Known about the structure:
Layout: H1 2-10, H2 27-48, H3 61-82, H4 88-115, H5 122-137, H6 164-180, H7 186-208, H8 223-239, H9 249-261, H10 269-287, H11 295-328, H12 333-371
Amino acid sequence: MLSYIKTPWSALCSGMERGESAGHRYLGLDLLRGAAAIVVVLKHFKTRLDLPYLAPNGYRAVDFFFVLSGFVIASAYQRQLKEGLLAATAFFRKRLIRLLPLIMIGTTVAAILEIGRRDLDQIQHLTDVAIAFVLGSAVLPILQTPALQTPTLEQSVFPLNTPTWSLFFEIFANLAFAVLARFKPLSGILTTVVALSGIWLLFAIFSSGTVNFGFNPAGFWLGFPRVIWSFSVGLLIYKYRSFAPHGTFIPASIILLVFLMLPDMGIPTATMDTIAVMIIMPAVVFGCLTADLGPFARRCAIWGGNLSYPIYALHYPFVHVFSFLAKGMNLSQTLQLGVALVGTALITAFSAVVYVFLDLPIRRRLSWRANRL
């Protein structure tokens, strides 16, 4: 019995679980990926509760994730795709197996929690939940056309589990990479893509006054330059990875947390977002490639790398519930902060359980079946 319990939980602490990478594991990036996922949770608590100084710029973590994703995907698959060792369809199937189970679990949890609400027109609400559940599980955004609306839910392109918007763009970037990676002059194509998407993204940021777009219907289309720029820069970082500096992990980590956690000090948001997205996030990834961690930090990094995606994919509906309960009790700001911190810990624990007992077994089963095709 004890060995049965130990076996699944050991996967959580195992360095063998890399998600997509079968080669070198960049533990410094794993550690920061886990920290960034926690920051995103805190940012959403800040939005729901009266906590204006709790990770106010946590939305920039998404851009860090996009850069990191480009680097990790190139590290794991670029050579295989370029040399024809892995078909584009097989690569895309691998990525869907990696991403879809948690998307569907997160959407299901959100739907169950939403059905429990009693302060709305129940027929309309159940209809809205059904629409959002079907489209959210298929990673299809709701653009709020007159023919398709969900008025009783949050007005985002994924009303049940809003963070799915970035996973939609992640899938898009993976699909584009699978196509372009097979071209021999990839470097020239990549440079052109980075330049054009950078211009597009700059225009989008200064037109909107922020880089915090892509999740709602009005700014959905601006999510494309946001992911194209960052993902492509991640691919470039992989190309020049041999030039990564040593001894820069700690300052890079501090800079990342400053740009995510601290409020802006009178500088226009568009300017700070531009610096963060175009300079800081790529520099942090590049500066953490050679991180040399001690035993405890390595263990934390493995946990962070394994749990970052489950936390990101599952946290949003629970943030809603915890925040609703806290506001209903008219708690002080200090107690609301306590709710946010305790809620984040509970969300992390729940994510670990889902990762060990649902996500990993489902992905292993799907991979086994895919390999038999």
